Amino acid sequence: MSEVAVAVDDLVVEFSSDEGPVRAVDRVNLQLERGKILGLIGESGCGKTTVAHAMLNAVAEPGRIVRGRIHYAGHGDLLGMSEEAQRLFRWQHVSVVFQASQNTLNPLQRIEAQIRELARAHRISNPNALVGRAREICDRLRLDGRRMLDAYPHQLSGGMRQRVGIMLALLLQPEIILFDEPTTALDSLSQESVLRIIEEIHAKEGISGVFITHDLGIVAEVADVVAVMYAGRIVETAPTGTLFNAPRHPYSRALLNALPRLTGDPRAAKGLTGAPPKVVGEVAGCLFRERCRFQTAQCKMAEPVLTSVDADHRVACFKINEEDGRASV
Amino acid sequence: MMRTIRRFGVAVVMIWMVTTLTFFLIRLMPGNPIATAYQTLLQQGMTAQQAAVQIHILYDVYPNQPVLTQYFVYLWNLVHGNLGTSIVYTGRPVLGLILAAAPWTLLLVSMGLLISFVIGLLLGVIVAIHRDTWIDNLTSQVASVFHGVPNYITGFIFLYFFTVMWPWFPFGNIYNPSIAVGLTFPFVASVAYHAVLPVAAYVFGAFGGWTLSTKSAAMAVLGDDFMMADKIRGLTSAQRLDHLVNNSILPLFTGFVLSLGFMFGGSVFIESMFSIPGLGYLVQSATTQRDYPVMQATFMLLSAAVILANFAADTLYSRIDPRIRN
Amino acid sequence: MLACDQVVKRFAIRRGWRAQLVTAVNQVSISVPAAQVLCIVGESGCGKTTLGKMLAGVLPPTEGSVTVDGVEVSARRTAERERAALKVQLVHQDPFSTLNPVHTIGEELSLPLIHHRIVPKSHLREECERLLTLTGLNPKAVLDKYPHELSGGQRQRAVLALALSVRPRYLVADEAVSMVDVSSRLIMLDLFLEIASTQDLGLVFITHDFGVARYVGYEGTITVMYLGRVVEQGPTEQVIHHPCHPYTQVLLSSIPALQAGRDFMPQKIVPRSFEVPSLEHLPVGCVFEPRCPFATEACSQSAPQLRATDKASSQQAACLLVEATSTGVVG
Ligand SMILES: Nc1ncnc2c1ncn2[C@@H]1O[C@H](COP(=O)(O)OP(=O)(O)OP(=O)(O)O)[C@@H](O)[C@H]1O
Ligand SMILES: Nc1ncnc2c1ncn2[C@@H]1O[C@H](COP(=O)(O)OP(=O)(O)OP(=O)(O)O)[C@@H](O)[C@H]1O
Ligand SMILES: [Mg+2]
Ligand SMILES: [Mg+2]
User: Fold this and answer.
1) Where are the alpha helices (DSSP H) in chain B?
2) Torsion angle, CA of A280/A285/A290/A294, rounded to 10 degrees?
3) Where residue C328 falls among pLDDT bands split at 50, 70, 90?
4) Interface of C with A in 261-290 (CB under 8 A)
5) Which of A18, A179, B192, C126 lies at a 20 to 30 A Cα distance from A100?
6) What average pLDDT does the segment B141-169 reach?
7) pLDDT value at position C181?
8) Which burial class, exposed, middle or buried, applies to C257 when counting CB atoms under 10 A from its CB (0-12, 13-18, 19+)?
9) How many structural domains comprise chain C?
10) Terminal CA-CA length for chain B
């Protein structure tokens, strides 16, 4: 078994609300091996972004990490570091490509000024070299580097801003990059160039990554292992091939069935109706049962836990043993 | 550029309209001193001809001229920088009166505005960062209380405490008349000393509003994605504060420039309370004594300042916000 | 009919110390008949959003005209043009930037209703409820909520309700579902289609996802843009399955297999380069020539115009090699 770059242990994140603390992330365990890419999929609001931000101890107010450990190889538990050490750790060792990176740039500064600010924050001795590097990465992302650096954020198209966000994440050569929906605003060609860059840095520089998306087609292309999240919990993890060819959890299967495709009956794809429950306080039973075709009495009684069905394949569902889950895609 | 020129044109036309309006409105007001003086002269036995000449010598106005003619003469003089002569301070040119009064108001209000803005900005940002803590509750309460209290009341309280109860500060006037006027240290020090209370009265009346509006602006900015991203990018607290302040100032900027425009009118109470010979004082005394030319000119100045501030706010805003620049 | 004729949009950008003009949209003419769907697809930065904003009347074109049911709305505003412009509404990609965080959904919806005097004041609440019901929301549950109290899907619906409040005849949806996750994306798309058909709305659907374009625009037309120009347009299904322009072919064949579906386009067509030419230094000939795998000498000489690819169909492409590529290269 190869080295683990980061291990998330028993992570619980809660957001305070009027009705009481909302559990956005519940007892999540994740291991990211060095040089590998872990896909994290699940529908909107299931807690993917919260996991990513928690991995940097930067969950937005009113959220907080209730318990858990985030152990980085060579650095120890992030939550045990001093504030200043955490600040310098962020971005130098782990960076993020933000979801909606459209709006993650200060609207009042040109891109180049923002890069120089980053250099100052991280005490980089040669900011000019960093700007040069930024230009280079832009070129690799099929962006006109000079124009990007000279522009204010609003002068760039949605996709350009997203790629500038990717450039910033690569800038300080971190060991781990958390990609939070890095390609949602991108067309297939730009997507491809982004995926290429990810693969390239991944292969050449041994960077590990967490790839968060609801775009299953992309996960299938880049991820080595995939974890499916539902309502703050991980409900299935498996190597990518296994997950896409033989998903076992009913939720994973529903996700795969919801893609609008280019062949066949255009209306054959089906969206998933209903919404995941909001988790306030203790819950009993499986959280997916209301939307599940295979619901039984058992699902109401207890909450299923992740159980191994294969070497690297674990599922949290009672039905895995009774029914052949090998749905076709 | 074309837009700026057009806007400026609009501003000029508006100033002209306001001038015209005040010209006619003032002549409709009861208690016309020229008419009174003219009647008095007639009763003293002068012929109409003599009385008219006398009035012209005194007030630079022909009482029997049709209003429209008076209006055109007025405009003609106006574009030549001649604002007429005061009726009350017989024979003194209005322009001179205004130029003598303006520096005091400018000093008083610009100091007050600047200080209250800076205090409000700092408090507002601090409160937004610590929202829903005791810092927020306390500061916001205090700010709303001060925001609600008119500045003549704070002025009165200050006067009572700091000139009567504890006479730490001088009362009345804006410098010590025994010191020669000039850019000398004693004179400047005397002005500063005299200005403390009125400026403080202004600041206490204004900082609450700035605090509250900064707070809401800063809270909106704190919710923006880029502030979250700044933290994860490992920017220092100073850099993040910088982004917060710069982005929070934007929505306040227009209000700030507009307040500059309103400042000539905003200090009437404070000036009369502290007997500072500024514009507010001039407006007030001219109005009570029906000193037409002075009233006319000061009203015009007050509205022109507001209109020009509006123009400046529009034009400058697009300079400081890159998103509007194009 | 919502149409634009030869619209051009130029922006000034900074180049070192100088300013330079870039042409984000270049002589584009498209039209959407009432109650029809037009999809606009293309690579990032090709000018889709800019074109959409011009169609919706929120950005004036540098040249050319935009007409709504025969009224030119891009010229100086008169009361009549103002009314015509109101018939086109833009639905933004980002629901956060559209909804004011300090207004409840009810207040937000009331503003345009009052401002444009859509309904008398006494009917305000009913109208808000009607709009919310129309977009699949429960009025009682959301009317007094602030945007941040709604889920992503609810927010997206509220934005749609806001766009519908002024009773438009056309909607321009700019990446309206790209932020919505796959499981609810289809449900959102169904909602758009349902509203468009019950309200007889014309729909301009801007997306970078051919799958989405096919889903909403199955019976409509599709326009493929590249560097500010239209390179191909025609009936959606035909363009997707028989693309004529090499650019369309490249775009389609770069879609990951899992997304495209089994056996879609077995043959991979790779561009000669992934480099997109800068808007400031556009090639003199065909804009796609530097990347086109089929480019010939002639392609770098002159810019091709849009022309029909065969007599029978309404498909058009701007390529000198149209005959060569429409048959043979792609099966
Ligand atoms: N600022 C907040 N205030 C209150 N609750 C929040 C906040 N941010 C997130 N949450 C809660 O955390 C849950 C998880 O949110 P998160 O953003 O991590 O989801 P996600 O999986 O990234 O979804 P998406 O695909 O929409 O980005 C949400 O359902 C919500 O209940
Ligand atoms: N305000 C502006 N100032 C300068 N350039 C601009 C401005 N708005 C857009 N542009 C430029 O116009 C071009 C087209 O932008 P547009 O936003 O229309 O692209 P798009 O097709 O919507 O792309 P995406 O799919 O990435 O959103 C880009 O090169 C962009 O940089
Ligand atoms: Mg997210
Ligand atoms: Mg766009």
Assistant:
1) 2-28, 33-43, 48-59, 67-79, 94-129, 134-148, 151-159, 185-222, 225-232, 237-266, 268-273, 279-288, 292-320, 322-325
2) 160
3) very low
4) 261-265, 271, 274-276, 278-280
5) A18
6) 80
7) 72
8) middle
9) 1
10) 11
Which range marks the domain in which residue C222 is found? 2-87+168-242
Residue C11 at interface with chain A, using a CB cutoff of 8 Å: yes
Number of domains in chain A: 1
Q: Tell me what the mean pLDDT of segment A319-326 comes to.
A: 55
- A293: Cβ–Cβ under 8 A, 6 or more apart, which residues? A250
- A161 min Cα distance to partner chain C (Å): 10
The residue-averaged pLDDT of C296-306 equals 85
pLDDT score of B326: 53
**Ligand 4 centre from A291 Cα, in Å?**
34
pLDDT greater than 80 at residue C16:
no
pLDDT band at B137 (very low <50, low <70, confident <90, very high): confident
User: Token digits for B58?
Assistant: 């005194």
Q: Output the pTM of the full model.
A: 0.81
Q: Distance, CA C181 to ligand 3 centroid (Å)?
A: 10
Residues in chain B with CB shorter than 8 Å from the CB of A168 are 233
Query: Residue C103: inside a domain, yes or no?
Result: no
Chain C residues touching residue B216 (CB < 8 angstroms): 102
Q: Which residues, 6+ apart, have CB-to-CB distance to B112 below 8 Å?
A: B198, B199, B202, B203, B206, B267
Q: Whose CA is nearest to atom 29 of ligand 2?
A: C45
| Residue A13 CA to ligand 1 centre (angstroms) | 11
Q: Does C235 touch chain A (CB under 8 A)?
A: no
End-to-end CA, chain A: 30
d(Cα C105, Cα A244) in Å, to the nearest integer?
Answer: 40
Is the minimum CB–CB distance between B225 and chain A shorter than 8 Å?
yes
Q: Which of B173-182, C34-43, C140-149 has the lowest mean pLDDT?
A: B173-182
Alpha-carbon span B152 to A187, nearest angstrom? 63
> What domains, with CATH codes, occur in chain B?
2-79 (no CATH), 98-325 (1.10.3720.10)
Q: Out of B223-237, B239-253, C281-295, which region has the weakest mean confidence (pLDDT)?
A: C281-295
Q: What string of DSSP letters covers A172-232?
A: T--SEEEEESTTTT--HHHHHHHHHHHHHHHHHS--EEEEEES-HHHHHHH-SEEEEEETT
Residues of B numbered 227-246 whose beta carbons fall under 8 angstroms of chain A's beta carbons: which are they? 228-236, 239, 243, 246
The reply to whether ligand 2 has any atom less than 6 angstroms from the CB of C49 is yes
Kindly report the average pLDDT of chain A as a whole number. 86
pLDDT digits (tens, 9 = 90+) for B98-115: 888 888 888 888 888 899
A267 is in which domain, residue-wise?
A: 248-329
Residue A302 lies in a domain: yes
Look at residue C269 and tell me if it is in a domain.
no
Residue A31 lies inside a defined structural domain of this protein: no
Check which CATH number belongs to the domain holding C16 and give it. Answer: 3.40.50.300
Q: Does A323 map to a domain?
A: yes
Residue nearest to atom 12 of ligand 2 (CA): C24
Are B179 and B187 in contact by the 8 Å Cβ rule? The answer is: yes
With vertex at residue A272, the alpha carbon angle to CA A271 and CA A277, rounded to the nearest 5 degrees, is 150
> Alpha helices, DSSP H only, in B223-291?
225-232, 237-266, 268-273, 279-288
Secondary structure of residue A292 in the 3-state scheme: coil
Answer with the residue of higher pLDDT: C310 or B78: B78
Q: Which residue in chain A has the smallest CA separation from B247?
A: A108
pLDDT at C312 over 70: no
Instruction: List the structure tokens of C69.
Output: 């049911």
Nearest Cα of chain B lies from the Cα of A229 at a distance, in angstroms, of 23
pLDDT digits (tens, 9 = 90+) for A96-121: 998 876 788 999 999 999 999 999 99
| Domain annotation covers residue C34 | yes
- Give the confidence band of A197 by pLDDT, cuts at 50, 70, 90: confident
| C321 found inside a domain | no
